[in-house]
Structures are given as structure tokens and as C-alpha cells.
Amino acid sequence: MAQTVGFAGWQLEDLLASVADQDRAAFAELYRRTAPKLYGIILRILGEPAKTDEAVQDAYVRIWRSAGGYDAGRGRPITWLATIARNIAIDRRRSELSRGAAQTVDFDLDLIAHRGGEGASSEDLAALRVCLERLDPEQRQMVISAYLGGESREELAERTGRPVGTIKSWLHRSLGQLRNCLGG
């Protein structure tokens, strides 16, 4: 707890700068502040807590090693951290897919409710379920695979045998339908 008090006024940028200098206490504080969010990002992509735990560890190893590469001029620190976490999760997901693991994502939307303190309300989740159900089943699966499972347009195209342009159009249209359905 004493460490937390020492970093009370520090921003994530400050912590990253100290982590770049191999400051273990700053790293512990960075982890404390950001782990729930990064865990949520990775869990949404991998879908399994055991796999997520390993990927979170890998993400923080990469953060420790590359903190000096953070450039505040290119974006917020949480965005940089989230990108590292997301990329690790996507790399792991792609590795699973290349080994012949399940090719579809059967995603539990309730996991969204547990992302690092920014959970969706039960009403929001219910509305999202209703709106997803209104999509064509194939397009719904593509939206879930792309935005929750981390698959790229190219991977979706290869898996479904459709052109990348078609996948891009379907995703764009599907997101528009979701936005309209959700009142946004």
C-alpha cells in the first residue's frame, strides 16, 4: 500500500517512463492500475481465463521490455498498453486457428460486463443480444469473430471463401445495423 501512496499523483505516462528505467515499483503500480482493463481485452478475444492469464503475463513482459518505446505524441498510454494486449491475444488466437482449433467464436456477451470497471449494464447487454439476433447468422458470426474474437478481414475471407472486400462490406453494414438498432 505504501507504494501506491508514493505514486498517487503519477499519470500512466510517468509510470511508463519509470518502467522504461526498469523501476519495479512503478511497474507494480502500472500493473495495479491497468491489469483489469488489459485482462478484459484479452479475455474477450481468447474467451478462456486460463489462456487469458498466460497472455496477460506475456503482455506485461512485453510492456516491461518495451516501455521505452512509448511515445506520448502518438497516443494515450492506455491505448498503447491495450494495443500490446490485443496484439498478443490476436497472435495467440491466430496460432490456435492455424493449429486447427475451433474456427468459430461462440462468445458469451456477459464477459463484456466484466471489463476493468467499465462494464456494460444488463440492459445494454440485452439490447446488444437482441440486435445481434436481428443480423443474418453468417454476418453475426463475422461481427463476433472480428470484433470479439480478433480475426482479421483476411482471416475471415480465407475461412469463409469470400473476397476480403465482401467481408469488409458485410462488417461495415452489420455495424451500421447494430448502431441503428441500439439507437446510436
From TrEMBL:
It holds the Pfam family Sigma70_r4_2. Residues 126-177 form the RNA polymerase sigma factor 70 region 4 type domain. Signal peptide: none annotated. Residues 30-96 form the RNA polymerase sigma-70 region domain. This is Sigma-70 family RNA polymerase sigma factor. Belongs to the sigma-70 factor family. ECF subfamily. Keywords: Sigma factor, Transcription, Transcription regulation. The keyword Acetylation does not apply.
